[in-house]
Amino acid sequence: MLRTSVLRLVGRTGASRLPVLEDFGPRYYSSDSLSARDDARDARAYFTTPIFYVNAAPHIGHLYSALLADALCRHRRLRGPKTAATRFSTGTDEHGLKIQQAAAAAGLTPTELCDRVSEHFQQLFQEAGISCTDFIRTTEARHRVAVQHFWGVLKSRGLLYKGVYEGWYCASDECFLPEAKVTRQPGPLGDSFPVSLESGHPVSWTKEENYIFRLSQFREPLQRWLRSNPQAITPEPFHHVVLQWLDEELPDLSVSRRSSHLHWGIPVPGDDSQTIYVWLDALVNYLTVIGYPNAEFKSWWPATSHIIGKDILKFHAIYWPAFLLGAGMSPPQRIYVHSHWTVCGQKMSKSLGNVVDPRTCLNRYTVDGFRYFLLRQGVPNWDCDYYDEKVVKLLNSELADALGGLLNRCTAKRINPSETYPAFCTTCFPSEPGLVGPSVRAQAEDYALVSSVATLPKQVADHYDNFQIYKALEAVSSCVRQTNGFVQRHAPWKLNWESPVDAPWLGTVLHVALECLRVFGTLLQPVTPSLADKLLSRLGVSASERNLGELYFLPRFYGHPCPFEGRRLGPETGLLFPRLDQSRTWLVKAHRT
User: Fold this and answer.
1) Closest listed residue to residue 335, CA positions, set 246, 430, 450, 467
2) Alpha-helical regions (H) of 366-443
3) pLDDT (tens digit per residue) in 479-519
4) Of 147, 157, 138, whose CA–CA distance to 325 is shortest?
5) What is the 3-state secondary structure (H, E, C) of 452-499?
6) CA-CA-CA-CA torsion sign (499, 501, 507, 510)
7) Domain Methionyl/Leucyl tRNA synthetase: where (predicted)?
8) Residues 62 and 102 sit within 8 Å (Cβ to Cβ)
9) Average of pLDDT values for 409-430?
């Protein structure tokens, strides 16, 4: 029979204007188009990943979190100078009982274990092109100062008191659990043992005197915050889940442990017998990075977007906002939540031997290839499945064949012997569909293509705002397919540059296709930065012409001059994305197992 958690209190208890879509979309994107939406926002933006626990090596789930934040941050930077003030932090969470135990099991000191595993995360993120501006470790002195100051603020506001906590504690999850969140699981010998209902990790009964945070006082303020900010937590199902949690009783929260039991952490100021609860310690990292407790942090908070996994939603959507409100601060602006990755339909597990090494994947599929796969296939609302065959099929189809093949066709010397951006002929492709004349060659499907690509940047921006990067990539991929259909339909390889009838249309077909490629390359920069750079360099697009504010699609179609017309293409860069060998991939996997 399960015991009931008991909290005995000691001391006071009281409560206390985007372009109008006309005909085929916006005429062209001016420098104020995509960035206009940002004028109503804070000029600064601060993106964070969770800080990752160092009890084990990084896996693809960790990399996925970092890539989501990286893509959001890169897209924000591309919107132009008005949105250039951007920060992006990640790091490692290095305190807590789990670290203490893992170090002992490995025959290491906690410091040695933290140094080793934190270095693995830093190497992974560097290799994966994660463009963070800060990598924080909770063992740093600056973080200790921030945590102890934050503690002092909570205490000075009467939100901490001492009490005896008696109840279930899960060391793996580093959290206390009420009876309703604990169940019994059969053991190998027929007996049963208590586990967390949500994670399945073992729990143990704990009784000790700790500092308690008056979390119960914040149930209604948290409800008001979420109900008045429907996009505070995205996707919406997770917002709904948190509101459901808040319909239940919200008990006060133990925020320290006995230092005799947990010594690997930050001591409570003025009471060395207690160690600050690892989650309170860890969450303050988001403030440490922006200079807390110095006044400079206020220029970055709360213009903050947290990117987190669904397993730590409660800590970020209930505990953290409550701590912040308690300290007289606002909750973060957005909390973006994503689901997990499985492998061939199974949860990743050391015991199953199916944990996927992200560094191996970066080497096998290339950095840009694996970044593209995770962000193209990862859907935040539900768990996503990884297997090698899926990666190879997607990358060969969308990057090697569709996008790479399109670039090769349009820049091949046989079709484009002058290696330039050919001229656009307005009589062959008039801006009004349905016109008839001896020179008109454009068909209804061609106007549909122009419409799709003209509206693509805004569509992609909307998907980023809604934390749907996979939909942004799906939209780009759809337009790539449309553009290939356009080229295939008009077969420029069958046209002759020497023919006065063919030449204007041949140049126009290539011009349109190259303009589409320029849009695709620009929009892919947040996801595949090296591949996008390779594509744009081949088109002769300079670094200053790659922001979204400079993305004027097909201006000649709309009666404006095109700065690229007649410009020489950049140097040959080889295949944009070489096809992956499926059989070789499986052999590597078989060898590893």
Assistant:
1) 467
2) 367-377, 388-395, 405-411
3) 999 999 999 999 999 999 999 999 999 999 999 999 999 99
4) 157
5) HHHHHHHHHHHHHHCCCHHHHHHHHHHHHHHHHHHHHHHCHHHCCCCC
6) negative
7) 46-410
8) no
9) 94
